[in-house]
Design brief:
single chain, alpha/beta, Rossmann fold, 3-stranded mixed beta sheet, 10 helices, 12 strands, 39% helix
Length: 314
C-alpha cells in the first residue's frame, strides 16, 4: 500500500514508518520538525529510515502543506502529528495546541473529502478521559479532560467522527494509554527515569508515587495502528497495554533492572495530571483483534538496552 504518515519523525511515527517499510509499503511521511523537544532526536529517528528507497519525508506543516497533492494516490493515512504534553498546554501555549491538534486535523480531514481512502487512523489520547468515573475505562464513559491538551485531543477526535458521519471518511480514532519504549520522547516519565537510573541522577517524581497508569509498549501501539487500518472497523477505541501499575512500582522495577535504587525527588502534583488511567480494550479486541503482547518488565528492559547502546555506540 501507499501510506501517508503525519508526525513521521516522532516517537510513535518513526516506529510505525519502520514497520510499514519492513512489510513493503511505500511511505510518504510529513513532519514539521517542531522544537517541542530536541530536534536531533527526530533526526536520529529519520536516519534509521534512510536506507529504504520507498520512504520519502516532506518537511512541512499540515497547516499550510499542499495536502491534496501529497495525499493523491494514498491508501491509508496515519495521523500522529500534533503538539504533545499535558503540563505545557496551559496559558499562552494553548494557541499552539489549538493550531497543531485541532486546526491541523480539520485541514487534513477537509483534504481527504475527495480522496478514495481505505482508512485514516488518528492517534488520540487517554487524556480525553481526565479523572475517569471508573476503571478500567470504557469508550462510552463521558470524557472529562482536565488539561487543555486533553481538550484539543478530544476536539480532534470529534472532528474525525463528524467527517466520518457526514462525509463517509473511514476514520478510526485510537485512544492511546501512556506509550513507552525505545526512542520515547525525552520529556516523558520513563525516558527521564531510565536516564536518571543509569547515570546516578535524581528523578523528580510528581505526586506521591501511588498514581497508576496503563503503560503500553510502542510495538503494541504500532500493531494496533496497523490492525485498525487494515480492518473495516471505524469509530473510537482504547489502546492499553494491560500493565496497570503505580509509578512507585515502576521506579523499583527500573532500579532492579539497572542494579541500584533510583533516588527520587518528591514534587507536587502538576495541573492537568490525572490520578489513574486504565483501559478497557474490549472494543479494540473485538473490532480489529488487538491484543498487547509485551509485558512491562520486558519493555522497560528494551528501553534500558537501547539507552545503553546509544551511550556506548553499539
Amino acid at each position: 500500500m501507499r501510506s501517508f504518515v503525519t508526525g513521521a519523525a516522532g516517537f510513535v511515527g518513526s516506529h510505525l514508518c519502520r514497520r510499514l517499510l519492513e512489510r513493503g509499503d511505500t511511505v510518504l511521511g510529513i513532519d514539521a520538525m517542531t522544537d517541542y523537544y530536541d530536534v536531533t532526536r527526530k533526526e536520529t529517528n529519520l536516519a534509521a529510515l534512510a536506507d529504504w528507497d520507498s520512504f520519502t519525508l516532506r518537511r512541512a506543516d499540515l497547516l499550510d502543506a499542499p495536502l491534496p497533492q501529497l495525499l493523491d494516490g494514498c491508501d491509508v493515512v496515519f495521523h500522529l502529528a500534533g503538539q504533545p504534553g499535558v503540563r505545557p498546554s496551559w496559558g499562552s501555549e494553548f494557541a499552539v495546541y489549538a493550531e497543531r491538534n485541532i486546526l491541523a486535523t480539520q485541514r487534513l480531514l477537509e483534504a481527504l473529502r475527495d480522496v478514495p481512502l481505505r482508512k485514516i487512523v488518528y492517534s488520540s489520547s487517554s487524556s480525553v478521559y481526565g479523572d475517569a468515573e471508573s476503571y478500567p475505562t470504557v469508550e462510552t464513559m463521558r470524557p472529562r479532560p482536565v488539561s487543555p491538551y486533553g481538550v484539543t485531543k478530544l476536539a480532534a477526535e470529534h472532528l474525525c467522527e463528524l467527517y466520518r458521519v457526514n462525509f463517509s471518511i473511514p476514520t478510526a480514532s485510537l485512544r492511546l494509554f501512556t506509550v513507552y519504549g525505545p526512542g520515547q520522547r525525552p520529556d516523558m516519565a520513563f525516558s527521564r527515569l531510565i536516564t536518571a537510573a543509569l547515570y546516578g541522577r535524581r528523578f523528580p517524581l510528581f505526586g506521591d508515587g501511588r498514581q497508576t497508569r496503563d503503560f503500553t509498549y510502542v510495538g503494541d501501539v504500532v500493531d494496533a495502528l496497523l490492525a485498525a487500518a487494515g480492518s473495516p472497523w471505524t469509530g473510537v477505541a482504547n489502546i492499553g497495554g494491560g500493565a496497570w501499575i503505580s509509578m512507585a512500582e515502576v521506579i523499583s522495577l527500573v532500579g532492579a533492572l539497572v542494579g541500584r535504587p533510583v533516588e527520587v525527588v518528591p514534587m507536587p502534583v502538576q495541573p492537568g495530571d490525572v490520578r489513574d488511567t486504565a483501559a478497557d480494550t474490549t472494543v479494540a479486541r473485538q473490532g480489529f483483534g488487538y491484543a498487547p503482547s509485551v509485558p512491562l518488565a520486558d519493555g522497560l528492559a528494551r528501553m534500558v538496552e537501547s539507552e545503553l547502546a546509544l551511550t556506548t555506540g553499539r
